[in-house]
Specification:
73% helix
Amino acid sequence: LLDFALILFVGLMTHSYATEVLTRSPHIILSHVNLVKRVVFPLQILPVMTVSTALFQYFVSLLVFLCFQFVATGAVSPGVLWLPAIVAPFTLLLVGCGWFLAAFTVYFRDVAQLMGLAATVLLFMSPVFYPVSRLPAGLWPLFQLNPLTFIIEQSRLAVFSGMAPDFVGLALYTAVAALVAIVGFLTFERLRKGFSDVL
């Protein structure tokens, strides 16, 4: 039971990190209208701040996990040291999503309401409550499309097995995350020109 709780905790940490960004990013520009209209301010920093806050909460959760693991097993896995390398490309991906959502929601307010639903879908379409190996083989491709799946699986591999992550997989993930970040930033920069008119 304790082992399952620890495994579940790692999955929930990752999902909570993503959920925090997805649900807060759409509101970040709308809640700082004064910065858009009256002050020369680098607005692209606001979504980054949202991700930074969520990342801080992730590491607070990680500290709680480490305490829980130490109490439950009497030791802390050295594989936890791999987590920053695993979470880094995920963070880059979330920054790109944050830029896109923050800008897009200024024009389409309903996007903010959809993010709660999206977070729920991500929860049940990722291996938070179970490992991917428990899924029918036919569902693997669908679950692999979820950006949380790889991060959760690699985090658990590092923490519970002490193994190094899949560096090839991380490299591919980083490339996709960088592409998302670039598209998100360019979208933000293009749409921000009309923020003051819409708001």
